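Go through this chain.

——
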Amino acid sequence: MLVLAATRLFTPLEELQNPLLFVEDGRIAEIASRNQKEIPNAATVVDFGDSILAPGFVDIHMHGGTGLDVMRASPAELPRLGKWLTTHGVTGYFPTTVAAPLDQTCTALGCLADAIEAGRSPAKTNRDAVQARPLGIHLEGPFLSHKRRGVHAPENLVEPTPQIFERLWRAARGHVRMMTIAPELPGAIEVIAEAARRNVCVSIGHSDAVMEGARAAVRAGARHATHTFNAMRPLDHREPGIVGEVLTNKRLTADIIADGIHVAPEVVELFLQAKGIDGSVLITDATSAAGMPDGTYQLGPMQVEVKDGRCTMDGKLAGSVLTMDQAVRNVTRFAGWRLLDAVRAATLNPARAAGFEQSGILAPGVEANLVVLTHSGEVQKTIVRGRGY
């Protein structure tokens, strides 16, 4: 048995003082306080001192990092990305596609499905285990608005049909767990309903929808919104549009890129006030350039330039170099949120939004995927399946 100790623990629904976290066979067996529970004599005890135990971060929208693009990397290369992600507290992530020719997309989906299935096998050594694992695939494209496409190539955008969705679903062997779609496109409502029927988290985004179009998507089964404010019809006081629906509909969770570049810190604070502790989700939208020096990098079939922390293509923002631990710290600075609540937006909230009820939380029975934080939110250690301490 492994016992982890620290001064605080975020479940993250609540905060516990002087916790003991018991791990058996890679899963959490029990959580107690030091004055409630005796440590078995045979247990391995790791005391992190004046630190915080929290669930490992879950990034449901990221395209790569450390020079690797998830649409171009092989399953053998993805562990390198996973190991780098753990240095920023991430234990689970959704490799996210961009609009590309359908044949290329399907090939990439097959490789990502291989990586997801390989990640479900127990690691043989402590070293092998310490890497973030791909949990499911996020399709960002090809069902996006031409007007709000961002840097996605227009020739790779298609109108949604059940047939194209089925082709993508089969290529991914059912591992599509999120899909960003513009609800105003012809055929979108039918595809939203079918994806939701298959328990895909349908996320509205890259959209020029008016409010009623966004509401129709929610009625059809959409339950989330992609990088709020970015690649969306702007909020207007007489025609609130898709942003108005996202900010006011409590049935929708929504994510945001809290890097201070994609959205001004004051608007991040506004978003967090509107969606609250339950509905706010942090993502990175990181590209292969994350963790790398300034230069030219891949984003699916595209090349992007990184300079001074900005990732662009032809002058437009093209993903980010944000890391999840920095996003958490930014939320505490931008909005004055407690670290406990900022951590929730990077753990339990994204996991629940995507339908992964056993991720993003510390509780008996779930996998022991944790990050050890300082009181300012710096990552000290990441533990995956009880390994890596």
Residues 57-360 form a domain with the TIM Barrel fold (CATH 3.20.20.140). The longest strand covers residues 27-33. The chain has one domain: 57-360.
